[in-house]
């Protein structure tokens, strides 16, 4: 029980810090005021990227042993990206469990560490939108299109951006 209350206190503090000092490029809040473990996040498509002008909503779900384990982040808005699974789950190194990568793709230092905060996670997602990693894609189809048909990729992303603007 102690770890759940520690996680709650930390999440409460991170939420308060974000409200006091908002970060350009995203906003965050609770999905339900009574649950600190589920956050609603909106990532604004970074300037000078294919995602510019988009408003992409996601749900960030924290485990009870946060910050020892990473949250999961799942876009609820349509998004076409090599590092986002078809179901919207984000696949970036810092969201992978701490320690050595069983597949040998990532260094332990690239994976989750308790020093990460909601802010560092979302900044990593913004960075991911700016430069996809097609080396170990979550969405193979998007990665293939990114590599082989940049124009088709651009069109598909544009549709996602327009759709995200209509949802406002």
UniProtKB/TrEMBL annotation:
Its EC number is 2.3.2.23. The active site is at residue 91. Belongs to the ubiquitin-conjugating enzyme family. Keywords: ATP-binding, Nucleotide-binding, Transferase, Ubl conjugation pathway. SUPFAM superfamilies: UBC-like. Accepts the ubiquitin from the E1 complex and catalyzes its covalent attachment to other proteins. Involved in the formation of multiubiquitin chains. Signal the protein for selective degradation. Residues 6-166 form the UBC core domain. The keyword Nucleotide-binding applies. InterPro entries: Ub_conjugating_enzyme, UBC, UBQ-conjugating_AS, UBQ-conjugating_enzyme/RWD. The keyword ATP-binding applies. GO terms for molecular function: ATP binding; ubiquitin conjugating enzyme activity. The lineage of its organism: Eukaryota, Viridiplantae, Streptophyta, Embryophyta, Tracheophyta. This is E2 ubiquitin-conjugating enzyme. Pfam families: UQ_con.
